Amino acid sequence: MPAEQQDTPHYWAIIDALPVAVLLKDTAKPQIYANQQARLLLSLPEPVLNLSDIRLIELIEPDSEELLSLVQNPLLLALSGSVVHQQVRLAGSKQRLQLSSQLVQLSFTLSNSVLVALTPEQGKGVIRDSQRSVYDENELEEALAFDKLMSLISAELINVQPEQLDIHIEDALSALGEFCHADRSYVFLFSDDMQTMSNTHEWVRDGIASHKANLQQVPEAALPYFWRVMQSDFIFAVRDVTLLPDEASAEQQEFEREDIQSVLCSAMTNQDKLLGFVGCDMVARKRAWTASDIRRLKLVGNMIGNTIQNVNYRLSLKQMQQELMQANLELQELASRDGLTGIANRRQFDTLLQHELQRCARYQLPLGFMLADIDHFKQYNDSYGHLAGDDALKQVARTLSQTLKRQGELVARFGGEEFAILVPVSNADELTQLAETLRTSIEQLQQEHLFSAAQRLTISIGATLVNPDKTTNPSELIRQADTALYQAKAKGRNCFCIFQPDNLPG
Ligand SMILES: Nc1nc2c(ncn2[C@@H]2O[C@H](COP(=O)(O)OP(=O)(O)OP(=O)(O)O)[C@@H](O)[C@H]2O)c(=O)[nH]1
């Protein structure tokens, strides 16, 4: 086994004894080694650390006295492979420290290592550089331009409509690719069960091949090393993919297939859950990713991750609302139907009658109303049984409904074996014709009823025609139709009567 794959590098004894605080990380491995001086300076109990231990070290920007956020944390940036030279102060200490990092190719290792030295301000660090600021002038201008562009894109993303989301994400990716001088930039999302990842959005420089179509539902097993590093460090920064360790052979093959020389990916998270990642590839040449590249990538990743979450929340809220509305409609429908016959029930009828009376009063239209009642239904039940009675009710309901098909016509179960019928007729003749049609439609069913005069199932109908005004009372209409029905029963059944104001029951 090569030396750099063992738990502690064999050259460690030399670094451990240095009189300067040094952190060392092999870029291909998650562990970070702190030498004796670093352990003393940073109060670290163990020499082997991981990135989460480093996140706990609070650093302060000594001029502004501001606590450095995770995104600006120079220790994390340095250990992720960026070259950093920056003054910092440890929380709780007054001493200014010079934090300097360097990527080194140690002759006895295969991959790159990052050396981070923390030296007192006046001291001479082993890898201390000239006193240059983190950014040179060009970088500063680029950083400003990028930030301006991002604030424009993020403003548009705040209330982005779901159908516009892809365009805005692609804009952000193209800005990221251009400013990081990359050849490709992209977004991958993990499936909910974290078993696969899919390339959802991509930007490619002119002349560079796209691989998006082949990168759908890529299983964890296809890129195990990448998956592991991403889950533990939330960042995957590789300057030269040929220097990846042996355990990353699957990744090396995939990078080769896509002609990738350098790659940089940063996780998109929501409350510590990995949603996916945003990344950049170098195809034409290698690139030692800078602190600015990482900052940009994290910014774009956060922006896209938050927007996707936001759109998903809004979509699921909308879907929930629609489901609720649908359930409500179904409930309303259920509450307005008669359970046995399936036609409108009394409650629905009352609402519609009120509505029709008002409509006809407004437009000065006549309204016809009928009550239809099955003849000798008690005897039908008694002779053929209650279930046969139920079937007869269903059959009558279906026949009446099928006979009345015109707009505005309504048949409802009024109660027991009685049906209420609303018809927008224009005169008494029309009402008479309709009543006769309904009566014969039941008679023609030829449903046996030996205890009825016609020897078959029949109905009697009481009908009335009104010219409603604002004062017309629904119960008056019902009373009139009921009076006419009583007359039809008295006349011998299987017939209809139209209400006449002077025809009082007798
Ligand atoms: N099977 C069944 N019968 C019902 C239902 N609702 C009411 N009935 C029956 O309908 C019958 C109505 O009887 P009555 O009001 O005496 O009238 P009728 O026998 O039809 O006599 P006329 O109306 O005078 O011709 C009763 O026996 C009720 O039990 C129902 O949902 N199913």
Explain what you see.
The protein is α+β, with helices and mostly antiparallel strands and 506 residues long. The protein folds into 3 domains: 3-120, Beta-Lactamase (2-Layer Sandwich); 137-314, GAF domain (Beta-Lactamase, 2-Layer Sandwich); 346-498, Alpha-Beta Plaits (2-Layer Sandwich). It contains 14 helices and 19 strands. The chain has an 8-stranded antiparallel β-sheet. A hairpin with a 5-residue loop joins strand 1 and strand 2 (32-34). Helix 5 runs antiparallel to helix 6. Residues 1-6 and 123-135 have low confidence and may be disordered. The structure holds guanosine-5'-triphosphate. Guanosine-5'-triphosphate binds next to strand 15, helix 11 and helix 12.
Keywords:
single chain; 506 residues; alpha+beta; Beta-Lactamase; Alpha-Beta Plaits; 3 domains; 8-stranded antiparallel beta sheet; 14 helices; 19 strands; disordered N terminus; binds guanosine-5'-triphosphate
